[in-house]
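Form P-L/3: holo structure prediction, ligand nicotinamide-adenine-dinucleotide.
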Amino acid sequence: MVHQTVRHKSSDLVGLAPTHLQNLRRRDFVAGAALVDGRWIVGEQRDIVVDPATGEEIAEIARCSAADMDRAIAAAERSFAAWRALLPARRGAILRSWASLMLDHSEELAILVTSEQGKPLAEARHEIAYGAGFLEWFAAEGERAYGETIPSHKPETLLQVRMQPIGVAAAITPWNFPVAMITRKAGAALAAGCPIIVKPAPETPLSALAVARLAEEAGVPRGVFQILVGNPIELSAPLLRDTRVRALSFTGSTQVGRLLLEGAAQTVKKVSLELGGHAPFLIFDDVDVDRAVKGAIAAKFSTSGQDCLAANRFYVQRGIYGAFVDAFAAAVAQLKVGHGLDPTTDIGPMTKLPVANKCRAQIDDAVKKGARLFSTNQGVSLGPNFVPPALLSDVTEGMLIAHEETFGPVAAVLPFDSEEEVTARANANEMGLAGYIYTDSLRRALRLSEQIECGMLGINTASFTGPSIPFGGWKQSGLGREGSRHGLAEYMELKYVCFGDLAG
Ligand code: NAD
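OUTPUT (holo model):
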């Protein structure tokens, strides 16, 4: 099975990723074997990984079967008792050593990420540090899984609430942050005392498998961290139906999230979901236009727009609308499109062709309905996965891009008049992951921070993620939280214990 449907050759880009992969110090990082029950398996069948910039084949990987998944679940269950019995500090030491190995191999991991995912190398390096940060955070947080004592409502009793590991956990992870979405889930599960089985996205298995090698080297015991690659439906079915899998964490599309939630209902698992976004970015006319543009570029074009936090709707107050559009268009025109391994690249290819096609369809729809398109068309000749960074102004609510997530480097700008009006428009969507507000009015910032319906809000900043924050969304953007102290709770059960007859 080949995961990228279109092969294309763009002469100046071909060979970049294979050359970098051949030069890796760690050849085992591209062996393409999966980790099941402490053994690296190559699989009876193999899948091909391609460089999304060129369509070139860059590696072969194992295609695990449902039977492999059954073995993994059994191995995880066997490993649970010993792992939960380790002192949290000991589990933390293993997580810290895993983080430190990731940082030692940062460059090689970043090259793998860029080669299979497409993002610029500088962003890939940042992802490795971000990903290692979750392991470090949860290494410490595991020691703080405090319970409670409750002032008793009955005489001669002691009421206690304990936090206990839930059992075997499973993670299904996306291709846009192929390393950090694994460590964000695995760090929390392992710190809580749970074994975890990871199924990464078929497009980006190499960096995931490399991170698994480092987990083994860090001393994560057999069966406690396993990783299986292959067909998503075939591999998720055993996870969903098996009663031994107690928790499921997923990051990806809302559509697949709904399917998994439904599937997990069979065995009533604890489910956490990080799904799509459609973040509003509100710019009031009391702010400095250049500052707002800087924030807008960061919020829209990081990860080439393939980020669930990406701003999708820029609502700009009428007083600065023209000035903002001109300055934003000029800044967008500066972004350089190319292969992620070229150090001058700002915008790489879309990892998947359907994502690029969706961007093009949204642009066509908006232009047909009267939007103005600003784009240099730079990069179109590089291949079908490339989408030149674009700005659409005068977007109206009837256009697809105004109510559908883009997940690519296309910015939609809409004018607004009043705070009340823009608040209602920002909230009139079923997604509620992130939001952004630029204003110099403290009163307005306080009012809006209460009223905007989303899980994460940046006021006068486009950069707010990190291991210590509760990452997650409202409405159809998800369930539960990752990172922060709340992230640990997704892998733990509360147990209330009442000790009676204390006087006797
Ligand atoms: P997706 O939801 O199809 O893929 C995410 C993960 O789910 C991958 O591991 C994939 O193999 C797995 N998967 C897919 N179908 C499955 C199924 N039926 N059963 C079990 N697992 C399944 O995402 P996509 O289609 O590759 O991307 C499309 C859209 O998803 C994007 O445009 C974006 O809106 C959203 N997305 C969001 C995030 C995020 O960070 N929240 C990440 C990636 C994609």
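COMMENT: Residues 15 and 231 are 27 Å apart (CA to CA).
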